[in-house]
Design a protein that fits this description.
A hairpin with a 2-residue loop joins strand 25 and strand 26. The chain has 508 residues and is α+β, with helices and mostly antiparallel strands. It is rod-shaped, with a radius of gyration of 46 Å. The strands form four sheets. Strands 1, 10, 11, 12, 13, 14, 15, 16, 25, 26 and 27 form an eleven-stranded mixed sheet that branches. Strands 2, 3, 4, 5, 6, 7, 8 and 9 form an eight-stranded antiparallel sheet that branches. The N and C termini lie far apart (143 Å). The longest helix has 38 residues. Helix content is 24%, strand content 39%. It has three domains: 157 residues; 133 residues, no CATH class; 109 residues, no CATH class. It has seven helices and 27 strands.
């Protein structure tokens, strides 16, 4: 009897002998079964990957894709308190060179004086009368101690007559014919003062009137005779000058500093353009003046100038936050700096724009940076990334000044967004690395911040307060005292280490 065989051990049917055609798969079963199995596997893998991507994207979406990719908004918190701008009391010397007063006298004293038709008596020589006409040179000046020494030369022509009473009358003059005019040297001193009413006063004195030289060119003889009247004429001129001193003094007293300041004070209140997008507002509050003394060939007057200076780094000078002054004034110079967000964005963009960052093994480019403020005191930075990661990062934090002068955002919070869903597969590790790197990059030393802002402090070194009155000095260093952010702009308080002085170039 033939034993039973099964073609499939699991079929339960009879088993075929080896080599039997019934025990082999058919041609169709050998060609279609692997394709079906591979097709099903590939389809299942694609569906699994798609589902995984969707699940990952769905899982990460609430964390990495804010609604409409919106940047941070202000939290419900009280607005930051207004940053008070503290007036500064600046002790400055007011320095005026000797040419200031000499130029004033130059404008007040005529170049030509005297009249050949008006005879004057010479007290030193009885019976001698003279008429003269003179023209002076420019006034030379120098400071000697607390006095101003003025020197000028006078070239003159004289006509005289001498009646001795017992000798024949003698007349004549000098020069004779084509001779040059004889010359006199006149030296005056002026001791300037400032009265309690802020009126310039001065003590004037004629020091000497004498011939410029002892040569015949500078001597005067009547009609070429041996009668030399040079010394008599010098005495006559000295007498006339002494009589004119009260008038010169009254001309100096017409220089009322208080009235002049009152008419010019409003100039200090107007913003002064110091750059394409920068203005200086000195904010004058008051002025106190001390006495006048001589120092290093110039006159010095100590002054206390109370200012509330502001540097406005804004595209529109009218678009500036208000400032509230508080008392008491601080000693030294404190300058309030108002910066707009366009200017601050430019400074940060210059600091970071185009920089290549290595983040979690990727090379990422900082394509653009933009900042703005929130009324709760936070600064928002929008950083656009390219190359290794196409997306945008928003960071919001409160600017804080550390003890070492570094400006940081310690409470910085980030939001990351990208338009590439596949990039979300790696955002968790990438995001943490990026946050660490940006926290380190979004910090500045105050010197770098002020430099990046292009703070034009140099204008304080050569700034005309009024016509002829110039504020000068040398800035040794600039420190940042405070910083505050609002939706209107950024307010900084900086303290320059400056050695100022006020130079009087001319009286206006």
């Amino acid at each position: 009897m033939t034993p039973n065989r099964r073609s499939d051990p699991t079929s339960g049917g009879p088993e075929e002998p080896p080599g039997s055609s019934q025990g082999l798969p058919s041609r169709d079963s050998r060609t279609r079964s692997p394709l079906l199995r591979w097709g099903i596997g590939i389809g299942t893998g694609v569906m699994t990957l798609a589902i995984a991507v969707l699940l990952v994207a769905w899982t990460l979406q609430p964390e990495t894709l804010p609604e409409a990719w919106a940047p941070p908004e202000a939290v419900h918190a009280p607005a930051a308190p207004a940053l008070a701008a503290v007036p500064s009391t600046l002790r400055v010397p007011v320095v005026a060179g000797p040419d200031v007063i000499s130029s004033l006298l130059e404008s007040q004293v005529p170049r030509r004086f005297g009249d050949l038709g008006e005879a004057l008596s010479v007290d030193a020589v009885p019976g001698l009368t003279f008429a003269f006409e003179a023209e002076r040179s420019a006034v030379e000046s120098r400071v000697v101690g607390d006095r101003l020494s003025l020197r000028t030369e006078v070239a003159y022509e004289a006509r005289g007559r001498w009646d001795s009473g017992f000798l024949p009358s003698m007349g004549g003059g000098c020069p004779v014919g084509d001779e040059p005019r004889p010359r006199m040297e006149i030296v005056l001193t002026v001791a300037p003062e400032l009265s309690s009413e802020w009126v310039v006063d001065a003590e004037l004195e004629v020091v000497s009137v004498r011939p410029v030289s002892d040569t015949g060119r500078d001597r005067c003889r009547l009609g070429g005779s041996s009668l030399d009247v040079t010394d008599a004429l010098s005495a006559l001129v000295e007498e006339e000058l002494t009589r004119a001193l009260p008038e010169l003094r009254s001309q100096l007293q017409s220089l009322d500093v208080s009235s002049l300041l009152a008419t010019q004070w409003s100039r200090l209140e107007d913003p002064i353009a110091i750059g394409p997008e920068a203005w200086l507002s000195l904010g004058p509050q008051g002025l106190a003046l001390g006495g006048i003394s001589g120092e290093n060939g110039a006159f010095r007057m100590d002054a206390e100038l109370t200012l509330q200076p502001r540097v406005l780094l804004l595209s529109d000078v009218d678009d500036k936050p208000a400032s509230n002054a508080v008392e008491p004034p601080e000693q030294g110079l404190s300058v309030e700096v108002i910066a707009g967000f366009a200017e601050l964005s430019r400074a940060i963009r210059d600091h970071m724009g185009g920089e290549l960052l290595t983040v979690a093994g990727r090379e990422v480019e900082v394509r653009d940076v933009r900042v703005w403020g929130l009324d709760d005191g936070r600064l928002v930075a929008e950083v656009a990334l390219a190359r290794g990661f196409q997306g945008t990062v928003w960071g919001a934090g409160t600017p804080t000044l550390s003890a070492d002068g570094t400006l940081t955002l310690p409470d910085l919070e980030f939001v990351l967004a990208t338009s590439n869903p596949l990039a979300m597969l790696a955002t968790r590790g990438f995001r943490s690395s990026l946050e660490v790197l940006l926290r380190d990059r979004l910090r500045w030393s105050t010197s770098h911040l002020l430099r990046d802002l292009g703070l034009p402090m140099g204008i304080l070194l050569e700034q005309e307060l009024f016509p002829g009155i110039v504020l000068e000095g040398t800035v040794e260093d600039i420190s940042l005292d405070t910083i505050q952010v609002s939706a209107a702009g950024v307010r900084l308080t900086v303290r320059p280490q400056v050695d100022p002085r006020i130079r009087v170039a001319s009286f206006w």
